[in-house]
């Protein structure tokens, strides 16, 4: 079904879709990666049909070539039931070794300690009067600021590279929906929470390599931690740092990480890829609005004798307005595409359930 949809959409996508397919074949890229690039190119150029064709190709490849799964099945012969594996542990020693929290929680705690000890520096890093808060732009500046210590830059990079922990920090004080800012209360409460969780649950000890032993069974993290019960944050998704701007061609590795993530369903993978593209559009929107604000401020300072400069500023403002409208339309198309994909998956699930009921 997806192949038919992809071929139909390719017919309307224009020659660019064919060029991407031929380039992917010539370079020997996997079909999943080629279709992901096609979807990204379609969104960045405003070609909705090309983007839809790419997503349909990704869905088709994932349906035809699902991730391999293996499961240990013991031999029915008692004498050979544990052949190749360590002997089953006795009941007395069945208690799990180590804790239940991800070892990354320790790095998260260390980054929070650095933020707490240097909060006033983050609060005033962008030259603004301290208001007790900082935002994502502050973290981006701190990550590469040459005058900051390596510990401060590493703490900023951690939260840029781990949006799931950034989400937990954002809502640590008041809960609810994230607002994109981090207060001193957020940092203190998040630090207290992770300290309490590590003390209560412990951290998973690194597995000891032993030939013939099956991999350890993973356990869910405690409530309130990223991915654990009661956390409204999505499961961790590999994200670039910093996010690649449109046209830079640096997102193929991140798309591959999402596609190879065994903890995500096909719908979640498609949505994650589209969200990566949407974030690029949002960054471009913010840049355009920032330019418009600068032009307005400069226009307000001009006098009556600066007619030539005022005309140039008005022309630039009109161009930015057109660019802003195109970006808003592209953003709307992306959300419409994600909504249609979710609706199609829901319909497929309903049909499958109905067929099972008739069987």
Automatic annotation (TrEMBL):
Coiled-coil stretches: 310-337
**Residue segments, region Disordered:** 79-101, 212-255
Keywords for this protein: Coiled coil
Q: Where is the composition biased (Low complexity)?
A: 81-99
Which organism does this record belong to? Stigmatella erecta
Can you say what this protein is called?
Uncharacterized protein
Work out whether the entry's keyword set contains Coiled coil. yes
Say which domain of life the source belongs to.
Bacteria
- Composition bias of kind Pro residues appears in 212-224, 232-245
């Amino acid at each position: 079904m997806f192949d038919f949809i992809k071929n139909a959409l390719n017919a309307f996508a224009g020659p660019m879709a064919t060029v991407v397919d031929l380039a992917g074949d010539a370079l020997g890229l996997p079909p999943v990666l080629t279709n992901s690039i096609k979807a990204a190119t379609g969104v960045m150029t405003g070609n909705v049909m090309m983007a839809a064709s790419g997503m349909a190709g990704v869905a088709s490849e994932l349906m035809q070539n699902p991730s391999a799964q293996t499961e240990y099945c013991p031999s029915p012969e008692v004498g050979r039931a544990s052949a190749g594996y360590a002997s089953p542990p006795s009941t007395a020693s069945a208690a799990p070794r180590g804790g239940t929290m991800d070892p990354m929680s320790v790095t998260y705690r260390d980054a929070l300690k650095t933020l707490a000890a240097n909060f006033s520096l983050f609060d005033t890093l962008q030259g603004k009067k301290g208001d007790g808060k900082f935002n994502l732009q502050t973290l981006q500046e701190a990550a590469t600021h040459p005058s900051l210590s390596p510990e401060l830059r590493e703490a900023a990079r951690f939260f840029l590279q781990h949006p799931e922990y950034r989400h937990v920090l954002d809502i640590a004080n008041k809960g609810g929906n994230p607002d994109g800012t981090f207060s001193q209360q957020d940092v203190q409460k998040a630090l207290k929470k992770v300290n309490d969780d590590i003390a209560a649950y412990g951290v998973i000890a690194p597995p000891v390599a032993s030939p013939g032993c099956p991999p350890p069974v993973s356990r869910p993290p405690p409530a309130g931690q990223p991915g654990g019960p009661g956390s409204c944050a999505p499961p961790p998704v590999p994200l670039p740092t910093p996010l690649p701007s449109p046209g830079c061609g640096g997102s193929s590795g991140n798309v591959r990480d999402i596609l190879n993530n065994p903890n995500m369903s096909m719908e979640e993978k498609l949505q994650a890829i589209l969200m990566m593209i949407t974030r690029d559009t949002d960054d471009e929107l913010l840049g355009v609005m920032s330019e418009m604000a600068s032009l307005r401020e400069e226009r307000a300072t001009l006098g009556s004798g600066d007619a030539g400069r005022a005309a140039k500023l008005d022309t630039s403002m009109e161009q930015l307005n057109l660019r802003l409208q195109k970006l808003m339309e592209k953003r709307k198309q992306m959300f419409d595409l994600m909504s249609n994909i979710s609706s199609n998956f829901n319909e497929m699930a309903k049909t499958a359930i109905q067929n099972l009921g008739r069987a």
